[in-house]
What does this fold into?
Amino acid sequence: MYGDHATVRKILTESGDTWAVVGLSANQARAAYGVAAVLQRFGKRIVPVHPKAETVHGERGYASLGEIPFPVDVVDVFVNSDLAGQVADEAVAVGAKAVWFQLGVIDSAAYARTREAGLEMVMDRCPAIEIPRLG
It folds into this structure.
């Protein structure tokens, strides 16, 4: 298990409320769209990160993490596992506090690098499933 319950709780309650959602577009059929809506309902500010840089759920999108002109606290990753490690490295580079790999997104080497860099990290979990359990 990459990220125990304590780490999940810490990221959701202590790491900050600005979440960059990598892979989020205006496509309502994609899981990222629904998960971002749940995060918003629980008080998180979502920042869409997608090559299309679309506005989603009322929030302006950016083509990459590096283009976001303000700090992000958590980077929620909805890309294929083979691309996720690069996103985790970008999260470290932009000064995020935590990285969250969604269900099915697994890269143990990226997990090790990210933890070694001092960030909290959860892998193969979904915040939209975990956040309602905190109450």
The chain has five helices and five strands. The longest strand covers residues 18-22.
